[in-house]
């Protein structure tokens, strides 16, 4: 049972700051509506040198350099408009700021205190936010956290609620019933505040679809974040929710990620979101 209690530092960290970093001309026709604010064109890309092992999350000293595109060409460039902007629809700026040597405009340590962290970062022109309780933290969700979440969502640069959802992988020790309750509560908040939702759904497609259908209208705007399953599952999500967009991360650069390659080859571009999920999923060289 989820009950009200004193908010600890660990619990405050649940409020999951996700930023949208955009670069490019104001012609954002290929971007879904939830990621198409008015933007300028002076954002500069930076790169960090990472460990060669794609599974490693350790960062080395940063270097400015040209990107190295992966040998796996799963998106044919002929389908992309030459004037399209570049969008990172999901990255964890709060986690990146803890990385030693990370190149970032912001350099304070991780914190979810409004006055000392995220409000300052959201003053940047090209940073937007989404707040939500990740399913890994569902057991810590309580009324205090929910009040903090609702307060954070009032910020004018918030674009969505998330990431929220279900995770049945062996990395999550939260009971399914607890995840169900926290997911429903946050979906109701999103509906009340008319915010799109960023959904994390790992090994839980049937339950995820069922709970979303119980709370949200069928045409609600949804970002299905970090999709790594099969094209068949992707089709089921796309067919069930007409305003759902599937996010593909750097996993698409892994030669072994055959299912993600298949999704990238087949998904309509107007239903696709590109995301790094940084600092996770270091691109395969």
Automatic annotation (TrEMBL):
Molecular function in Gene Ontology: hydrolase activity, acting on ester bonds; metal ion binding
CDD domains found in the cross-reference section: TatD_DNAse
Pfam families (UniProt xref): TatD_DNase
UniProt-annotated binding residues for a divalent metal cation 2: 200, 225
Positions annotated to bind a divalent metal cation 1: 90, 92, 163, 277
Family note: Belongs to the metallo-dependent hydrolases superfamily. TatD-type hydrolase family.
Keyword Protein biosynthesis appears in the UniProt entry: no
Listed name of the protein: Putative deoxyribonuclease TATDN2
Record keywords: Hydrolase, Metal-binding
Organism: Trichonephila inaurata madagascariensis
Native organism taxonomy: Eukaryota, Metazoa, Ecdysozoa, Arthropoda, Chelicerata
């Amino acid at each position: 049972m989820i009950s009200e209690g004193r908010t600890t530092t660990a619990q405050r960290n649940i409020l999951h700051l996700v930023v949208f970093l955009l670069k490019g001309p104001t012609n954002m026709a290929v971007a879904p509506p939830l990621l198409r604010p008015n933007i300028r064109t002076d954002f500069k890309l930076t790169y960090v040198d990472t460990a060669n092992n794609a599974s490693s999350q350790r960062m080395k000293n940063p270097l400015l350099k040209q990107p190295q595109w992966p040998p796996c060409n799963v998106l044919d460039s002929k389908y992309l408009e030459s004037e399209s902007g570049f969008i990172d629809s999901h990255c964890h700026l709060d986690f990146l700021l803890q990385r030693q040597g990370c190149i970032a405009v912001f350099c304070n340590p991780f914190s979810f205190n409004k006055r000392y962290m995220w409000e300052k970062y959201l003053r940047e022109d090209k940073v937007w936010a989404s707040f939500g309780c990740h399913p890994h933290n569902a057991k810590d969700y309580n009324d205090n956290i929910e009040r903090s979440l609702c307060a954070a969502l009032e910020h004018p640069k918030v674009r969505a609620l998330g990431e929220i959802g279900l995770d049945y992988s062996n990395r999550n020790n939260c009971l399914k019933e607890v995840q169900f309750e926290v997911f429903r509560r946050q979906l109701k908040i999103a509906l009340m505040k008319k915010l799109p939702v960023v959904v994390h759904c790992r090994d839980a497609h049937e339950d995820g679809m069922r709970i979303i259908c119980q709370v949200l209208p069928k045409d609600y705007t949804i970002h299905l974040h970090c999709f790594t399953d099969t094209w068949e599952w992707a089709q089921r999500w796309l067919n069930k929710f007409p305003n759902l967009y599937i996010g593909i991360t750097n996993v698409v650069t892994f030669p072994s990620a055959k299912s993600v390659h298949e999704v990238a080859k087949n998904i309509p571009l107007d239903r696709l979101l590109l995301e790094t999920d940084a600092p996770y999923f270091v691109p395969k060289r």
